[in-house]
């Protein structure tokens, strides 16, 4: 919905009608365009550097890809991958669907889902850290959380939404940052009969972001973000993935200390600046389930 028919808005899963036309040549053509040295990062954690370089030399340098040895494996050599920048459009996508049989016999009730989003920024944008702090400040989660008592209970979506509206099953903020754009959104779910109220509550929370932010609230969000960063990096697999992702996206790896310092610099005016920037964009709306109580959104 947010990037209608372009780049980030294209289907994440292969459309059903495309499956019959996927051939061996189509797959090798895709590999030849996207699995190229300038798009690959080989990362390692807990391995000797020389040993890793030796294996990379053996399997990535000395051995040519099969499509180089047999040109018939790929289609038109003149084809180029789409390198266009993401164009944020905003928009509305709704899908009416009976979800009552999704979790039979489980405590999860029949829910209608609503997502409201606005354009944020890329992960290389100077405002990226401020958006991350805003995301942590909004927080949210489910009406029941298995993560332990007190986890995120002072975030806005808990105090202003989940604690006030017993019918709200879930309300969670997300900040999706990509290479050239981003989307800040709130996903909420409730009984279909409450969908009109869900929309009003979430719109009100977006508007409230432009209001006053208490110093304690801001400090708590910054501390939670720093804590989450450090706890995640305690796990080797996460450290490994972080290393590869940063080099692939930025060309270098920035340490946790760098991000801890940048997070600590965020002030109330920084949050207000990114909120004003976000509120100037056209809204993105997605809804799924029994939508008979969904108000007109165009």
Q: Any overview of this molecule?
A:
- The protein is an alpha+beta fold and 298 residues long.
- The chain folds into 2 domains: 7-73, no CATH class; 91-289, Cytochrome Bc1 Complex, Chain A, domain 1 (2-Layer Sandwich), CATH 3.30.830.
- The protein has 10 helices and 6 strands.
- Strands 1-6-2-5-4-3 form a 6-stranded mixed β-sheet, with helices on one face.
- A hairpin with a 4-residue loop joins strand 4 and strand 5.
- Helix 4 (128-138) crosses helix 10 (268-279) and helix 7 (215-232) packs antiparallel against helix 9.
- The longest helix is centred in the last third of the chain and has 18 residues, at 215-232.
- It is globular, with a radius of gyration of 23 Å.
Keywords:
globular, 6-stranded mixed β-sheet, 38% helix, 298 residues, alpha+beta, Cytochrome Bc1 Complex, Chain A, domain 1, 10 helices, 6 strands, 2 domains
CATH architecture of the largest domain: 2-Layer Sandwich
- The whole-number mean of residue pLDDT values reads 89
Query: How far apart, in Å, are the first and last alpha carbons?
Result: 13 Å
Determine and state the CATH class of the largest domain.
Answer: Alpha Beta
Q: What strand order characterises the main sheet?
A: 1-6-2-5-4-3
User: What would you give as the CATH superfamily of the largest domain?
Assistant: Metalloenzyme, LuxS/M16 peptidase-like
Q: What proportion of the residues form beta strands (DSSP E)?
A: 5-15%
